[in-house]
Amino acid sequence: MSTRHVVVTGATGFVGSAVLRRLAERGRGDQGVAVRAVSRTQTPAGLSGARRVGADLADAASLRGVCDGADVLLSLASYVGPDAERCTAVNAEGTAALMAEARRAAVGRIIHLSTCAVYGPGPHRGQDVGELTPAPVSAASAGRLVGEGAVLDAGGLVLRAGLVLGRGDRWAVPALVDAFRRVPAGWDGGAGRASFVDVDDLARLIVALALAGGDEADAPGVLHAHHPEPVRNRDLMDALAEHRVLPARPDADWSWGRCLDALAATPGWVSERQFTLLATDHWYRADAAWERAGIAPGPGPLSRLDRAARWYRERGGVTPG
């Protein structure tokens, strides 16, 4: 039995922590896995026996040697805050520096997590990667798109994920809570559909791609990485109400224009752009990644909400930190 040496950057993050848990499960099975968990400050939890390495994408010198001896690099670190300079330093320049280190170390397989937010405003309705031209509108997404280029140049696989749900989510559901407080009605019929994925299902997909055999598993490119079935806004809001994360959706239904007026009139942290992303059509075809990984996507993110309900109830609509 050969041991696969896997480097995980962003190891203490929302997705990175879930990937570490999944790697721990695989390491207890019939496939040996040795993990190097890379983070800026904290010691990653959930993976006994992992080697912890301190490094920061914004500090290229700190990355020296992090990929030495690795078979697989899982590039999961990013910055999604409002600081434009840090977006560039981490998402663009930092990713490029990490890819340069991976090439120096001759890493055989690189998988990088990006976002469907690189496509911009939409609406988007079921397109695949080759059917859309990225047009990011935020500094975070623009930096991540630049970082994708460095990954592809290094022969890596880019995974563009939709909205990620689960314990540790500091953006998607908290944003819905903030928006519903300001727009307490149905949002234009609640018919908008978006691509979502449960964080543990995303981790399952990433690890399956990381450890898959065959030449196809090393092929570079871009794939969508979320559940293939989009989620309707009203179904998500009703599910959150069932778990007492939101109040029950009222009978009143407001036009899109009235929704935007109410959002603008009431203070909060969710922007019109973010509200539009959550409430209108932003969904993308995502069969190819699951087929390549050789696993089923599962029943979908709404069926997993019970595991994160307490997290969401405690956090409410708090501004992401």
Tell me what you see in this structure.
The chain has 321 residues and is an alpha/beta fold. It is built from ten helices and 15 strands. Helix 2 links the parallel strand 4 (72-75) and strand 5. Helix 1 crosses helix 5 (199-211) and helix 5 packs across helix 9. The N and C termini lie far apart (43 Å).
Secondary structure: elements and pairs:
Elements: E1 3-9, H1 14-27, E2 32-39, E3 51-54, E4 72-75, H2 84-104, E5 109-115, E6 124-127, H3 139-153, E7 157-161, E8 163-165, H4 172-182, E9 186-187, E10 193-194, E11 196-198, H5 199-211, E12 221-224, E13 231-232, H6 233-242, E14 253-254, H7 256-265, H8 272-279, E15 282-284, H9 287-293, H10 309-315
Parallel strand pairs: 1-2, 1-4, 2-3, 4-5, 5-7, 6-15, 7-12, 8-11, 9-14
Antiparallel strand pairs: 10-13
Number of helices: 10
Poorly predicted tracts of residues: none
Strand composition percent: 15-25%
Tell me how many strands there are. Answer: 15
Give the % helix: 25-40%
The overall pLDDT average reads 93
Largest sheet at a glance? Answer: 7 strands, parallel
Written as H for each helix and E for each strand, in order along the chain, the element string is: EHEEEHEEHEEHEEEHEEHEHHEHH
Derived from helix and strand composition plus strand pairing, the structural class reads alpha/beta
Distance between the termini: 43 Å
Largest sheet, spatial ordering of strands: 3-2-1-4-5-7-12
Gyration radius (Cα, Å) is: 19 Å
Overall geometry comes to globular
